[in-house]
Specification:
Keywords: ATP-binding, Cytochrome c-type biogenesis, Nucleotide-binding, Transport. This protein is α/β, with parallel strands linked by helices. The protein has seven helices and ten strands. Strands 6-7-8-3-9-10 form a six-stranded mixed β-sheet, with helices on both faces. Strands 2-1-4-5 form a four-stranded antiparallel β-sheet, covered by helices on one side. The radius of gyration is 17 Å and the shape is globular. Bound molecules: adenosine-5'-triphosphate.
């Protein structure tokens, strides 16, 4: 049985609720009047061309940037309440957020300490086929190995809302299968997933809804 999601804010609140949300970056209106409801435990594929605003929307849901106008809630917490939002959300981004001078083991142990959690670091590194690289500095890992380490951290921390930017980029065929396994497992354990990617056929395997972002507007394709 997969371990339960921690912490467990199992309230009736939706995981994500956006109402009339706008975001301006510089001169660009990147997100325009978005309304969105994502229920707890859902899996959402977020598709769109390069520059459509997928990464920006994920960063906004992680409270890394604030909306220009409108209302956004994560498990009922206002997006502007960064501390509360960050307790519930994990963002797997292009930048990965890993410490390049630490080893994979040190990165994972540090993440556990930051979240006041315990976890099986050698076990999760083994799952992601990183045992042989556990003592190298992250800066000396390949891009695909860094992506697998970011997935190991996501698997270990098990936040209730996972915002995942291009999980399949830089991964070989076996790595993609491993990423699908990790995403399927965290979703089965109760996490809500929003996955931005350019591989609709892969994201469909771990999600139940498809959203498209174009010209700053969201639309949903029925499956
Ligand atoms: N800090 C910023 N300041 C100004 N404009 C920005 C900033 N960050 C992103 N943008 C702009 O916002 C738009 C959306 O970018 P974003 O990275 O969210 O797209 P994306 O859908 O994730 O693209 P990709 O598929 O290429 O990763 C782009 O026009 C980009 O130039």
């Amino acid at each position: 049985m997969p371990a339960p999601v921690t912490p467990a804010p199992w309230t009736p609140q939706p995981a994500v609720q956006l109402r009339g949300l706008w975001l301006r970056l510089g001169r660009d209106l990147v997100l325009r009047d978005l309304d969105l409801d994502v229920g707890q435990g859902e899996g959402v594929a977020l598709l769109g061309e390069n520059g459509a605003g997928k990464t920006t929307l994920l960063r906004l849901l992680a409270s890394a940037i604030g909306p220009t106008r409108g209302d956004g809630r994560i498990f009922g917490y206002d997006l502007r309440d960064r501390r509360a939002v960050r307790e519930h959300v994990h963002l797997l981004s292009h930048e990965s957020g890993l410490y390049p001078d630490l080893t994979p083991s040190e990165n994972l142990r540090f993440a556990l300490r930051m979240h006041r959690q315990e976890g099986d670091v050698p076990g999760v590194l083994g799952r992601l086929h990183l045992s042989g690289a556990a003592h190298k500095r992250v800066r000396h890992l390949s891009a695909g190995m860094r992506k697998r380490l970011a997935l190991a951290r996501l698997l270990m921390l098990r936040r209730p809302l996972l915002l995942i930017d291009e999980p399949f980029a830089n991964l070989d065929a076996a790595g993609r299968e491993l990423a699908l396994e990790v995403l399927g497992e965290v979703r089965a354990a109760g996490s809500t997933l929003i996955v931005a990617a350019h591989e609709p056929e892969l994201t469909a395997r771990v999600t139940n809804r498809t959203l498209h972002l174009a010209q700053g507007k969201l639309s949903e394709t029925q499956r």
